């Protein structure tokens, strides 16, 4: 299971080390793409195929399907880990996440998010301030699906 937070420095040529715990869980065939709230997402190819099929199975006539495809699939890159578990973040994704010199890897069960350390601190503050409201919204959504 992909859980926990790990801090890493960004090295030369935008090279970063994937935490070994995540490497064990994800394997070597990885996809890096744009995420929401200025993060990046790392998934293994198996989960990526599931995500891609959900997007592909939607109608290209639907604007939301097209926009989601552009956002997630259009920015996706296959990444290769070297023998030390490092990979290079492509410039377009580096810019999307506004990465500086330190990043945070966050395991979210099925995927890993990559955040700039400063933006992650801001997000945590937001979550701390709004956690009750977020939980209530999720509860409402779950109650609506029980009908």
Account of the 3D structure:
The chain has 147 residues and is an alpha+beta fold. The chain has one domain: 3-Layer(aba) Sandwich (Chemotaxis protein chec). It contains five helices and eight strands, in the order ββαββααββαββα. Strands 1-7-8-4-3-5 form a six-stranded antiparallel sheet, with helices on both faces. Strands 2-6 form a two-stranded antiparallel ribbon. The protein is globular.
Integer average pLDDT: 90
Sheet with the most strands: spatial strand order: 1-7-8-4-3-5
Shape: globular
Described by strand count, sense and barrel closure, the largest sheet is: 6 strands, antiparallel
Which architecture name does CATH use?
3-Layer(aba) Sandwich
Contiguous uncertain segments of 5+ residues: none
CATH superfamily, by name, is Transcriptional regulator MraZ domain
CATH class: Alpha Beta
Beginning-to-end CA distance, first to last residue: 31 Å
CATH topology: Chemotaxis protein chec
Q: Strand tally, please?
A: 8
Q: In a nutshell, what does this entry contain?
A:
The protein is α+β, with helices and mostly antiparallel strands. It is built from five helices and eight strands, in the order E-E-H-E-E-H-H-E-E-H-E-E-H.
Q: Any descriptors?
A:
alpha+beta; six-stranded antiparallel sheet; two-stranded antiparallel sheet
Topology, please?
Blueprint: E1 2-9, E2 15-17, H1 20-26, E3 30-34, E4 40-44, H2 45-56, H3 63-73, E5 77-79, E6 86-88, H4 91-96, E7 102-109, E8 112-116, H5 117-145
Antiparallel strand pairs: 1-7, 2-6, 3-4, 3-5, 4-8, 7-8
